[in-house]
Design goal:
With 148 residues, this protein is α/β, with parallel strands linked by helices. The protein has four helices and eight strands; from the N terminus they run βαβαββααββββ. The structure holds adenosine-5'-diphosphate and magnesium ion.
Length: 148
């Protein structure tokens, strides 16, 4: 997918929401400023969350009481899975909410097999973002790329 504004990235998240069931884990990859948090803002808005959504860089996990609940983690300050253990992330990953993890590669070993992987890249101009969505099959084997 290619988006041309933050609003388009938020809309893409909203369009994806009907495909996310309770328990779905989204791993967001891409550099700082690539649009990961913007995507989560779109998801939160579509879930009816009215609070402002920002990267939980210091708290690591924000919880929003939507239906299903939205859990937003940011592992930027984590080095690897060893660091990630003990943060309680596993409880969210196995829970009934939709869990979105920025910098998810830092806890790769903790992610369930059926995690969706979304990669954000800056495109050829300042407001272009290339967003690749790899959606796992229901049985968790392999990935279906960009099959929205
Ligand atoms: P990340 O969480 O990946 O570090 P953010 O979502 O916090 O990134 O920031 C993305 C920045 O890029 C914001 O300042 C936003 O306004 C800007 N931006 C410009 N174009 C887009 C786009 N198409 N999609 C998302 N963000 C965009
Ligand atoms: Mg962010």
């Amino acid at each position: 997918m290619v988006t041309h504004s933050p609003a388009e990235t938020r809309r893409l998240a909203a369009e994806l929401l009907p495909q996310l069931c309770p328990g779905t884990v989204l791993a967001l990859h891409g550099d700082l400023g690539a649009g990961k948090t913007c995507f989560v803002q779109g998801l939160a808005a579509a879930l009816g969350v009215h609070q402002p959504v920002s990267s939980p860089t210091f708290t690591l996990i924000h919880e929003y009481a939507s239906t299903p609940p939205l859990y937003h983690a940011d592992l930027y300050r984590i080095r690897d899975t060893d660091d990630a253990c003990g943060l309680g992330l596993e409880e969210y990953l196995g829970g009934e909410g939709i869990t979105v993890v920025e910098w998810a590669a830092r806890a790769a070993e903790l992610l369930p097999a059926n995690t969706w992987h979304l990669t954000f890249e800056v495109g050829k101009d300042l407001t272009e973002r290339i967003i690749t969505i790899e959606k796992s099959r229901p049985d968790g084997t392999g990935l279906l790329q960009n099959n929205l």
